[in-house]
Amino acid sequence: MTFDRVAIVEASLDAFLAQAAASATHLQPDAPVRSGSGLSARKAVELFEDQLTSRQLDVAARELKKTNRSFYTISSAGHENNVVVGAQLRINDPAFLHYRSGALMMARARQLPGSTPAFDALLGIVASSDDPIAEGRHKVWGSYPLWVPPQTSTIASHLPKAMGLAFSLARARRLGVATDLPDDAIVLCSFGDATVNHATALAAINTARYAVRLGLPMPILFVCEDNETGISVPTPEGWIASSFGHLEHLRYDLAEGEIDEVWDTVAEAVRFVRGARRPAFLHLRTVRLWGHAGSDAEQSYRSAEEIAENEAQDPLLRNARRLIETGAATPDQLQSMLADTRERVMAAAEEATRRPRLETTEEVIAPMAPYHPDRIVARAATPLLEPAARLELHSGTLPEDALIPTARTLAGCLNAALADELGRRPEVILFGEDVGRKGGVYNVTNGLQRRFGTGRVFDTLLDETSILGIAQGAAHIGLLPIAEIQYLAYLHNALDQLRGEAATLQFFSSGQFRNPMVVRVPGLAYQKGFGGHFHNDNSVGALRDIPGLVVAVPARGDDAARMLRGAVAMAAEDGRVVVFLEPIALYHEKDLETDGDGGWLTDYPAPPAALLPGEVGIYGPLDTGTADLLIISYGNGLRLSLQAARRLREEHEIAVRVLDIRWLNPLPHQAIREQAAAIGAVLMVDECRRTGGGVADAILADLAEAGIGRRLWSVRAVDSFVPLGSATSAVLIGTDQIVAGALTTVSGRLHA
Predict the structure, then answer these.
(1) Torsion of CA 397, 399, 403, 407, to 10 degrees
(2) pTM for the full predicted model
């Protein structure tokens, strides 16, 4: 029935054009379609041609599906009036598009001579590697020359980064960071009426309004393409207007009626956003023809009468009638255009099916995680501040006779490293909840706003989704964001901003778009019973599951500074997204063994010293013959393992080498194999939860599969949320467990 409905809609347009009588009026090309309207006859005909092209792309996708040559059948049919938005915005107005934005894309591409948007879309539909944006990895609306970053989202996850880009436009200019966008550029973000109910969408719209309340520019046009349906779930009548029509700090415009009326409404909305630098919500009435996708049998939830009523609202029928009635075009002219469009698109579709597809693993993953260590090292080393400039930068924090502070805690080294990165990289911005005036909940960002100003170090509202959206948007235009999520447990509120958006951008744009960023996340446990679960989250599995995401966990101050430089350089050079997980319990720790020993203080390593993934820390006897056991750990586990190593040496005469992996993704498997092969007995100390929470599974499995290590064992935290108070010791690992695990491993009684 689905394909029958496609044929019925097509036949209806044919029949109308065949029977329509030409108007007695014949408009000149530059004459308005209606007195007082800004839409000319010439432009109206162009819009209709772009709408026809979009419609025929949808028909072609479903026709090819019949022979299993198409892999994407979500159509734009019924949404074609979004063509007006595409025609009125410039191609240097960044656009984050809804998946039903076919006509909009055709009109946008019309502004770029030589572009082939229909053929490009068809290459995506058939998953050809010749697709110029995603190279067959997915069908997306995207184009680098048209400034359309590809969106994989159907449920609002693109709204926060669109908002973030609008938020960042003026900031980038004030900071002198060059972009390829004009001063009056605005951001377009389109989505559906069901999408706008998602918490992610509401977060982005709320933050846009919040920015206006603070007096900040927010030039974004939100376009809600309202077809009154979310797959099979109807949107209540009047819901969009009642929800967004009267919000403070958000202009609302309803675009409906004839094509010229829609044109004029859109023009007013665009003019407002561009001039006032404030957000607008454009409510665009549409209709969804056919099912949600080719596999969706809408007759299972819509009656035949409802389907027929929808088809009677086909915007192509209405627009053809309007063009003929006003004299902007004749029936013969439109018939000829329709026939030509059908022939052209179907010929292009057949050609697209003959184009190559991705075949190898290497081809598929090539753009996902670019990594050029030599270039990253060079990037980490430049630029460097002159000694006098560094003294001024660290004024009040450096000894008078030194260029670098010494004997610092983890927090102190991070603060100095952040200051150095801000000082030598003008594109770096630092933000999050409480990072500015307060200096961070744990004092890590103390003094940075005072030294670098509110343009570069600033506080955000309490919304993790918006924080990561701002990071992505800023990164799109050349800024290098260092965003803070206040606690690891809070990151899960916004995880899809990393999983579904930030980490996928290079993959689905074949490396043409990128959003380099470092996301600082205080986390892990061991805060001596304080804070409970939400301040002691000891699970990183959700992060390690994201392809291409780098996860760093420093344990010592000197490592933290060097790893942060490596993370920033990776982001700047290769566009990588790095989560920098900072162990809260180690922020202000000074001692290793006994009170006052200062064993956890380190000298601050001045730039350009940096660490990259694969570079590990090794403690203990380096001569292979003198080590009985290799303990592998990270974060808090490193400090506990070093304490256990002393006890094993003094109480049991067991020589232990401790390896700090530092990087949880990618894991330093090569370095681990080398150390494990040399020693044989291996104990993995993983402070995260036993089942899927940490990295023990992956490390031990790799060693086992490689046949490395005579004896492999692990100690891990209990599968539990972290409680409050002294009960924490019942679920977290301690030195006693590490010592017991070490004795088991060395003795070989692994199954006792």
Answers:
(1) -80
(2) 0.95
